[in-house]
Amino acid sequence: MNILLLSMPDSFEHMPPVAIRMPNGALTSLAGNVDGHHRVAVADLILRHREVRQTIVKLMREIAPEVIGLSIMTFQRRTAERIIGLMRALKPGLKIVVGGYDPSLAFEAYEKMDVDFIVRGEGEVPFRELLRALESGGSFTKISGLSYREEERWIHNPIGPVHKLEDGEIRLPKRDARVLSGYTLLGRQVDVVETSRGCTYDCSFCSIIEMRGRNFHTYSFERVIEDIRDAQEHGARTIFLVDDNIMLNVKRFEGLCRAIIDAGLNKIDYFVQAMTSSIANHGETLAPLMRQAGFRYVFLGIENILESDLQFLHASAKNTAKDNGKNIGNATLRAIDWIHRNKMLVVGGLIVGSPDDTRESIEKNLEFAKRYVDWPYIQHPTPYPRTPMTEQFRQRGLIANERLEEYDGTTAVVRTEHVSSDEIEYARWKAERWMKVRHVPAVFRHDPWFVATHAGKMMAHTFRGSTLRNFLGLEDEHKAFERYKAIRRQEREYV
């Protein structure tokens, strides 16, 4: 069969397509795990985010798909529904399958859409079995995690246990299936690699544990090295390790760093997500090893510098520093120090706008980011489907915005007991723009040609909504913020 797999064009504010166009690793993993006689095409629509309709029409004509698969996050749901409508109009007999975090956790919403199947949870094996059933005319009843229509009702098969990964059942991704090009991270071709799945913490904002439970499973180093080498052979000069929590097992991560070095793959730039406690408590040996392995950016899950907010986020444990087995407070500063000492850069992941936040507590976190992080990745609490946070915000009547297309993490859709959602977002927006500008020299030293050719576009994106009058102090910056929000709403119209 001809199969077309699509990721949505909707982008995060912190990952503007002018500078960052990241591939969807789930789609190439699906492509690598179907039976070999199928013809599979993968299209990340972020690469054509302003030409979505034309691109889909072209792909439908060239690939003539019989099955379409869409990977969807919550803020992409509206776009996905429009794309589904477009594809139905072009080819009414298509079989349409949806999967990813949003269909897994909010499958009821997709029952109302014109789709044939919903894959809940991990997709590689259920999708392969679904294709076999479609080819043979077989039954869907034993395909774990599959939802399907039967006459006028939906059947939801139970989700099976998560894959332990060590058994080799999940094969390598198939990057040759990609039919669009242009993946980039600050001027360098980027790819994604997964070395483990899962997390054992219970952060209240997290969709991962709601989707797969609290567990942690790993691939062998041999498989990971083979995956990195394949990405490199496909042109990648930067690799984002997309693991849910790669540093749950610090010894394993140290072993992975050594494996990368031994394989001669440490000339690649690596980007990784990390817990502050892991870096803080093991930084003396871990940080130099990371640098030697080629790690350049470390996304640090700071979450918040105030203990009261960490407790709401259920993130205290993973942000605690220890000395001789004793808790000695927040691990953030120690982790940042180890990263900077070893010439790596901190992407500061903070969350502002928890229920009891005041203007002062929000400003404390923003001031911390200005002082200590190299690149801000500051978000607002977002009530994603079935997370504990969602229930708490709803019980307290703090959800201010039900427009799911704005649930992108940088649009404040909840208020606090003391501060409106607009005020929260304005404070982040105002502070964050200048933090991004401050990082430009570091990017220039690493990739001067990219900055020389893209600086104008990057500045225009960062300061969209602002005018010369704002910079001269002749107009209230709230006016620029309102223009920015209007632009952002317009940007979300992809189809």
Mean pLDDT: 93
Number of domains: 2
Please give the order of strands in the largest beta sheet.
3-1-4-5-6-7-8
Shape-level CATH architecture of the largest domain: Alpha-Beta Horseshoe
By DSSP, the count of extended strands is 19
Helix content: 40-55%
C-alpha termini separation: 27 Å
Shape: globular
Q: Could you say which structural class the secondary elements and strand pairing correspond to?
A: alpha/beta
Give structural attributes.
495 residues, alpha/beta, Rossmann fold, 19 strands
Describe this structure in words.
- The protein is α/β, with parallel strands linked by helices and 495 residues long.
- It has 2 domains: 2-156, Rossmann fold (3-Layer(aba) Sandwich), CATH 3.40.50.2300; 183-462, Alpha-Beta Horseshoe (pyruvate-formate lyase- activating enzyme), CATH 3.80.30.
- The protein has helices at 25-32, 52-63, 77-90, 101-105, 107-111, 124-136, 208-212, 221-233, 250-262, 276-293, 307-312, 332-341, 359-372, 388-395, 421-438, 440-446, 448-462, 468-471, 477-491, and strands spanning 2-7, 20-21, 39-44, 67-71, 95-99, 117-119, 146-150, 153-156, 184-185, 190-193, 196-197, 217-218, 238-241, 269-274, 295-303, 320-323, 326-330, 345-351, 375-379.
- The strands form 5 sheets. Strands 3-1-4-5-6-7-8 form a 7-stranded mixed β-sheet, sandwiched between helices. It has a 6-stranded parallel β-sheet with strand order 10-13-14-15-18-19.
- Helix 1 (25-32) crosses helix 6 (124-136), helix 2 (52-63) packs across helix 3 (77-90) and helix 9 packs parallel to helix 10 (276-293).
- The longest helix is centred in the middle third of the chain and has 18 residues, at 276-293.
- The protein is globular.
- The model has no long low-confidence stretch (mean pLDDT 93).
